[in-house]
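=== RUN LOG ===
request id: a7f3
mode: sequence -> structure
chains: 1
length: 189
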Amino acid sequence: MQKNALRACTPVLKEDYYSSEMTQALDEQLTSSQEGEARPKVVAELAENYVFRMSFPDTNNVTFIMDEPPPLGSLSGPNASRVLAAAVANCVSASLLFCLRRSKVDVSGIRTEAKPLVERNKDGYWRVTTIDVKIRPELSESADQDKTKRCLDIFEKYCVVTGGVREGIKVNVEVEAGASRKTVGEMQK
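=== RESULT ===
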């Protein structure tokens, strides 16, 4: 199914174009967790106050810090709402870039801004309710407008993160605190 999604991204190109090594690698990356291979992992470790050190064990030692805004923290790094918006911004930008490049549209740069809106829900809890995203790709003046329009019409359908956020992501939480244990939702193994 994912293979067809990648191929459908740019139907303006010939089908045999998609037999490239890059597309095969993307197919494998997108379907690996469905076939029993290890899923990507993110580790959050408390550094101090509300500052967490985030690491990604399956990358090249990439880490960054996250922090809450005042009065809890000092916003010495992005908070979770900003990281969620960053994930959406990155995903839609990469999806658009992938489609444009596969369509042979020359892209010299992309600048994307994402603004999360945090509001209280009906129970009074703060929630990210909206993420406004503005993408500004830099295209050559000679860019094929038909190919560009086609990508603009379909690119969002292939953004894994944005699609998941829009549909509502199932989040499983398990807490082990000494002898106390709490599970919320079904845990996936």
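=== NOTES ===
Strands lie at 43-48, 51-55, 63-66, 107-120, 126-139, 173-177, 180-184.
DSSP finds five helices and seven strands in the chain.
=== END ===
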